[in-house]
Amino acid sequence: MVNPVTSLLIFGIIVLVLLVLFYPKTGLYWRLQNSFKNDTKILIEDILKKIYHAEDSGKTLNSNDIINMLNASPQKVLATIAEMKDKELISFENGDIKLNEIGMDYALRIIRVHRLWEKYLSEKTGFHKKDWHEIAEKMEHNLDSDQAEELAMDLGNPRFDPHGDPIPTATGEIEAIKGNPLPTFEEGVIGTIVHIEDEPDIIYKQILAEDLHIGSHIHIVENNEKRIIFHSEGEEFILAPIVANNITIAALKKEKFSEEDTFRLSNLEAHEKAKIIGISKECRGEMRRRLLDLGFVNNTLINVDLTSPMQNPRAYLVRDTSIAIRNEQAKFILIEKMNHHAKVN
């Protein structure tokens, strides 16, 4: 005969297991269900973005293309594509996948959130710019429309993200990038960098290593199938065309450009004097505010005061005050050297 205490104990264990598995909202079964739904939502949004970027570049994608682009099983991707077709987010045309109107609206909402997050990371946090895209890729799936509008308002409703990409409006309107890839310009052209493409990652990291910035003025001195050479802010840059193709510039009239006299503060020699003419647009958030608070403002005279044995940091004399900053900060401060008229050869 079964002991009543044992029966009660077994019953209690069964009830406990059922509660752990099926308790409303927090039970393991429901958490797994929600996780599955969330994974599907993220995959749908990732696919929509891939299709949008392809169409925006004048390309098309088929199912195999999307499978190769995503870190998910082929079966899961194909099932998700079928679900997207049922929801009328996409349609097929000769094997290629096209965004329907509903899908286009959804894709633009995700891109808006992604670029707002990149703007937030650049303006409000200390994350390095090489990490903005990856962080935004994860965070873009976690905001609804109302939260996205709160984020946009907090940032002042920006029109462009820190890479120069236009941020779609809440109604899906998006500005065109006013410029062309760097390799399409002839030697002698003067321009300003308006956009730096952050994909693929391997090329973006090469551009980051060169310390090239949105808003920097450039002067192209050589352009051929092997390399592109240009001057910017007192320095010479040499890029392979495949790398330069990810940089968009807008041409400038020569009278609006003074490349010969514009340098980065990090290039100021010990015997030279200069005048501050601005802070690079690449310098944002807390760092920009700190430099301004220290007195690095337009039309301020400046010269090197003291140099450390390793040449970094250096102290600069600003308004009779010696201020030490590292070269990584000094490169954001743009100067005009006094009585400097020698042109870069």
Description:
40% of the residues lie in helices and 21% in strands. It has 345 residues and is α+β, with helices and mostly antiparallel strands. The chain has a 6-stranded antiparallel beta sheet with strand order 3-8-4-5-6-7. The chain has a 6-stranded antiparallel beta sheet with strand order 9-14-10-11-12-13. A two-stranded antiparallel ribbon has the order 1-2. Helix 2 packs across helix 4 (74-86), helix 5 (101-124) crosses helix 6 (129-139) and helix 5 (101-124) runs parallel beside helix 7 (145-154). It is globular and about 95 Å long. The model is unreliable at 33-37 and 341-345 (pLDDT under 50).
Summed up:
By secondary structure, the protein is an alpha+beta fold.
